[in-house]
Amino acid sequence: MENLLMFCSVIFLVLSVNILRSEARIFYQNVTLVYGSEEASVEALRLRTDGFGFANTGTLEFHATCPLQEVIGPRPDLWLLTCTTQELRDVLEPRTSRLNSVCESLQYNGLYSQKPARFCKSLHVLCSDRNQGAASGNPCHSWLLNSLFPEPEYYKFMLLQCPWQGAFNGTHAQQQQEPCWANLTLMNNNGHSHLSQGEEPLLLIHKILIVVWGSLLFIWIINWIKYYWYSNKLHKLLFVAPALKFVIIVILIIRWEFINATGLECRWLEITSYVLRSAEQAMLFMAMMLASEGWCVVRPKIRNIRHALLPVLFLAFLGSVICVVWVHSYFMAFAVCSIVFVIYRALKWCSYNIELINRQIIITQAIMTQKEITFRDGMGFKEQLLKKRDIYLRLRLVCAVYTMVFAIVTTMATFLTEFAWVKEVTFEVPEILVFTALGLIFRLRDFSVYENIEIIVPRERSAVMFLPYPDMHWPKRQKIMMAFPLQPVEEVVCEEEKALLKDT
């Protein structure tokens, strides 16, 4: 039995690492070499990342393998271009004559003699076939390049095909294309790290984040245990998103450690982390919306059609965010619309509940003044309502501030492709702050002082009584009833005085 379990574990590991893996920092690319061409051509190497940032000790290895088939005509002269963002614009200009002059400069006059002032760094890819000479124009089935990058810089990569120097001698050859399989391996730290310069701090950042989120969850659980009898459904729901966030950080640490060690992307880890992160963001907005609606604070149930509206908004936001990555970036418009609508409703519901509580305070205060009602220890209905109003004032501020920060961070993310760790920090810090703010607003406390409210017995034949939970419309239609004592007030006062004298 133990051998069977071990065998199943090995099979699962092989499937996870080999079948469900893809390129991460070892990039695989189909390239087409053109034999017999008289014009230069350039092809962008499509990487899963936008580029790669080298540190002080970066290395590059390019290897291309072509099928063993007969190809007629001189082979192209291959150059790997490593371009910065500004240099890339010049290379991609549709001017073949300009590329031809660059090729002549590379082949005859050295690397920098006649090239434009701002041109990409050019690396010569050599034929590694044993039976092909370096100066030969014969077909080549294996190409190889190794290079060091001693200076820190962020590069994008292009493959430049130049006509073979002196191969035509005034005659025209028929062009033939040969498909090849190429792989590009990029590393830092003298070949010990597959992470880009902007990704290397991510491991440390995620380890710090797991400590922060673990501490927040620990404090929340301790508070929950201490006042568990005051916990309600909203309090339990607010625990889900931070717990999910903790799981996401653990998965991200495993994912980046795997990329750093192997240079490959574990596909199921990438999918799981992205889906859970999208669900966590949707859960955050839904929790803010439910709290703004007044659920478990000013009313025991969600009102009317909102039972169906909230799940629809949750699924719309989650689905659109997932489709941004796996379908098209145009779905970001649906995600933004969902967020705008959610925050709009949250702010509107917060304002509605604040207005409702203010109205209740005015009505209650007028009745207490009219009937000359006084409370023992100064704790009355007004203090209860003021505490609930403070909750919604703070919640409305949190929703408004986080919405503006979320919009700014989402916009900045499009300009931070070279600095993955900055992008991660700008997303994580606002989330930590908003969850901390929500935790402080909705934390459990000793609410017993608000449960027992004593009215000083008036020296009259009647009294005013507030009935809690009178019907399904509570507290919008709070009932106030007139009550009459079962025995004369004088007898009650005399009994209290006798009891006080006895205790003394």
TrEMBL record:
GO terms for cellular component: Golgi apparatus; membrane. Residues 1-24 form the signal peptide. InterPro entries: GPR107/GPR108-like (IPR009637). The keyword Transferase does not apply. The chain crosses the membrane at residues 203-225, 237-258, 278-296, 308-327, 333-350, 397-421. Keywords: Membrane, Signal, Transmembrane, Transmembrane helix. It comes from the Eukaryota. PANTHER family: LUNG SEVEN TRANSMEMBRANE RECEPTOR, PTHR21229:SF84. This is Uncharacterized protein. It comes from Strongylocentrotus purpuratus.
